[in-house]
Specification:
58 residues; mainly alpha; 59% helix; globular
Length: 58
């Protein structure tokens, strides 16, 4: 189950792939979920999809 803000099917698939990758590298399920959620939140923030969207400086 991806974080609340992740709505598109593509982002949901990416969340699952990140979580699966973290599990494969030996992380616990709880940590794998946290890593995937943090990654998706960062992506959404960079794209300006969150309330507190800030773009990364180049």
């Amino acid at each position: 189950m991806p974080p609340r803000g992740v709505k598109s099917p593509k982002r949901k698939r990416r969340y699952e792939k990140i979580k699966k990758s973290a599990l494969a590298s030996g992380r616990s399920p709880k940590v794998a979920k946290r890593i995937a959620a943090a990654t998706m939140t960062t992506t959404r923030r960079e794209k300006g999809e969150t309330k507190k969207a800030t773009r990364k400086k180049r």
